[in-house]
Fold:
Amino acid sequence: MPWQNWDFSRRKVVSYDDTFRDNIDQVGGHGSHVAGSMVGNRMDGKAGIGQGIAPDAKLHVFDLKPGNGGMSDPGAARLFASIYNNGNGAKVHNGSWGRSGRPYSSHCQDWDGSLSGEYEDLLYVSSAGNTGGGVRTVKNPADCKNTITVVSQCT
Structure:
Protein backbone atom coordinates (compact mmCIF):
# COMPACT_ATOMS: atom_id res chain seq x y z
CA MET A 1 0.00 0.00 0.00
CA PRO A 2 1.25 3.52 -0.77
CA TRP A 3 0.98 4.68 2.86
CA GLN A 4 3.50 2.04 3.87
CA ASN A 5 6.20 3.99 2.01
CA TRP A 6 7.29 6.21 4.88
CA ASP A 7 10.18 8.54 4.09
CA PHE A 8 11.73 9.89 7.29
CA SER A 9 14.20 12.00 5.29
CA ARG A 10 11.37 14.40 4.45
CA ARG A 11 11.26 17.61 6.48
CA LYS A 12 7.72 17.25 7.85
CA VAL A 13 5.17 14.93 6.15
CA VAL A 14 6.77 11.48 6.02
CA SER A 15 3.67 9.57 4.90
CA TYR A 16 0.18 10.38 3.59
CA ASP A 17 -2.47 7.67 3.60
CA ASP A 18 -5.28 8.56 1.20
CA THR A 19 -6.39 4.97 0.61
CA PHE A 20 -9.47 5.54 2.79
CA ARG A 21 -10.43 8.87 1.19
CA ASP A 22 -9.33 11.13 -1.68
CA ASN A 23 -6.16 13.18 -0.98
CA ILE A 24 -8.07 16.47 -1.26
CA ASP A 25 -7.97 18.99 1.59
CA GLN A 26 -10.53 21.75 1.77
CA VAL A 27 -9.20 25.29 1.96
CA GLY A 28 -8.51 26.07 5.61
CA GLY A 29 -9.02 22.42 6.55
CA HIS A 30 -9.38 21.72 10.26
CA GLY A 31 -6.96 18.79 10.26
CA SER A 32 -4.28 20.82 8.48
CA HIS A 33 -4.68 23.65 10.99
CA VAL A 34 -4.38 21.28 13.96
CA ALA A 35 -1.33 19.57 12.40
CA GLY A 36 0.35 22.97 12.05
CA SER A 37 -0.41 23.79 15.69
CA MET A 38 1.19 20.51 16.71
CA VAL A 39 4.23 20.11 14.48
CA GLY A 40 4.58 23.35 12.51
CA ASN A 41 8.17 24.49 12.05
CA ARG A 42 9.01 27.88 10.58
CA MET A 43 11.35 27.74 7.61
CA ASP A 44 13.46 30.58 9.06
CA GLY A 45 14.14 28.56 12.24
CA LYS A 46 12.83 31.31 14.54
CA ALA A 47 10.41 30.68 17.38
CA GLY A 48 7.09 32.49 17.56
CA ILE A 49 3.97 32.64 15.43
CA GLY A 50 3.92 29.68 13.06
CA GLN A 51 5.88 27.44 15.41
CA GLY A 52 4.02 24.34 16.62
CA ILE A 53 4.26 22.65 20.00
CA ALA A 54 6.61 19.93 18.67
CA PRO A 55 8.38 21.61 15.74
CA ASP A 56 10.92 18.81 15.22
CA ALA A 57 8.27 16.09 15.01
CA LYS A 58 7.39 14.35 11.74
CA LEU A 59 3.85 13.85 10.47
CA HIS A 60 1.88 10.92 9.04
CA VAL A 61 -1.47 12.00 7.64
CA PHE A 62 -4.53 9.74 7.46
CA ASP A 63 -7.22 11.23 5.19
CA LEU A 64 -10.65 10.81 6.86
CA LYS A 65 -12.74 13.11 4.71
CA PRO A 66 -13.52 13.34 0.99
CA GLY A 67 -12.84 16.97 -0.04
CA ASN A 68 -15.60 19.09 1.44
CA GLY A 69 -17.83 16.08 2.10
CA GLY A 70 -18.70 14.34 5.35
CA MET A 71 -16.15 12.44 7.38
CA SER A 72 -16.52 8.76 8.11
CA ASP A 73 -14.90 6.43 10.62
CA PRO A 74 -12.38 3.91 9.21
CA GLY A 75 -12.47 1.78 12.37
CA ALA A 76 -9.67 1.27 14.85
CA ALA A 77 -7.95 -1.59 13.00
CA ARG A 78 -7.67 0.33 9.70
CA LEU A 79 -6.62 3.62 11.29
CA PHE A 80 -4.10 2.17 13.73
CA ALA A 81 -2.51 -0.11 11.11
CA SER A 82 -1.82 2.98 9.00
CA ILE A 83 -0.48 5.05 11.90
CA TYR A 84 1.61 2.31 13.47
CA ASN A 85 3.30 1.02 10.31
CA ASN A 86 4.29 -2.33 11.85
CA GLY A 87 5.94 -0.58 14.82
CA ASN A 88 8.00 1.72 12.59
CA GLY A 89 5.54 4.59 12.42
CA ALA A 90 3.90 6.99 14.82
CA LYS A 91 3.78 6.44 18.56
CA VAL A 92 1.57 9.48 19.24
CA HIS A 93 -1.54 10.24 17.23
CA ASN A 94 -3.89 13.21 17.38
CA GLY A 95 -7.48 12.70 16.42
CA SER A 96 -9.14 16.09 16.24
CA TRP A 97 -12.56 14.75 15.35
CA GLY A 98 -15.51 13.11 17.03
CA ARG A 99 -18.42 10.94 16.17
CA SER A 100 -21.90 10.86 17.61
CA GLY A 101 -23.01 7.95 19.68
CA ARG A 102 -23.82 6.94 23.17
CA PRO A 103 -21.13 7.20 25.83
CA TYR A 104 -18.77 4.25 25.80
CA SER A 105 -20.14 2.68 22.65
CA SER A 106 -19.00 -0.41 20.75
CA HIS A 107 -16.77 2.04 18.88
CA CYS A 108 -14.93 2.75 22.16
CA GLN A 109 -14.71 -0.95 22.95
CA ASP A 110 -13.01 -1.44 19.57
CA TRP A 111 -10.66 1.52 20.19
CA ASP A 112 -9.78 0.41 23.72
CA GLY A 113 -9.21 -3.19 22.68
CA SER A 114 -6.74 -2.07 20.03
CA LEU A 115 -4.96 0.43 22.30
CA SER A 116 -4.55 -2.10 25.11
CA GLY A 117 -3.66 -4.93 22.73
CA GLU A 118 -1.76 -4.81 19.46
CA TYR A 119 -1.13 -1.04 19.68
CA GLU A 120 -0.42 -0.71 23.41
CA ASP A 121 2.60 1.56 22.83
CA LEU A 122 0.57 4.01 20.71
CA LEU A 123 -0.71 7.12 22.52
CA TYR A 124 -3.99 8.36 21.09
CA VAL A 125 -4.81 11.99 21.92
CA SER A 126 -8.32 13.13 21.08
CA SER A 127 -10.07 16.48 21.11
CA ALA A 128 -13.03 16.76 23.45
CA GLY A 129 -15.17 18.06 20.61
CA ASN A 130 -16.44 21.38 19.38
CA THR A 131 -19.93 21.44 20.84
CA GLY A 132 -19.42 23.22 24.15
CA GLY A 133 -19.28 22.22 27.77
CA GLY A 134 -22.73 20.78 28.34
CA VAL A 135 -23.86 17.27 29.14
CA ARG A 136 -22.81 14.64 26.57
CA THR A 137 -20.72 17.01 24.45
CA VAL A 138 -17.59 14.83 24.48
CA LYS A 139 -17.73 12.47 21.50
CA ASN A 140 -16.07 9.16 20.60
CA PRO A 141 -13.15 8.51 20.63
CA ALA A 142 -12.55 11.18 23.31
CA ASP A 143 -14.78 9.31 25.76
CA CYS A 144 -12.93 6.01 25.34
CA LYS A 145 -10.92 4.63 28.27
CA ASN A 146 -7.53 4.34 26.56
CA THR A 147 -7.37 7.78 24.94
CA ILE A 148 -6.18 11.06 26.37
CA THR A 149 -8.73 13.80 25.86
CA VAL A 150 -7.75 17.43 25.44
CA VAL A 151 -10.10 20.31 26.10
CA SER A 152 -9.09 23.70 24.78
CA GLN A 153 -10.63 26.99 25.71
CA CYS A 154 -10.44 29.80 23.20
CA THR A 155 -11.15 33.29 24.45
In short: The mean pLDDT is 82. The CA atoms of residues 75 and 107 lie 8 Å apart. Strands lie at 13-17, 59-62, 92-95, 123-127, 148-150.
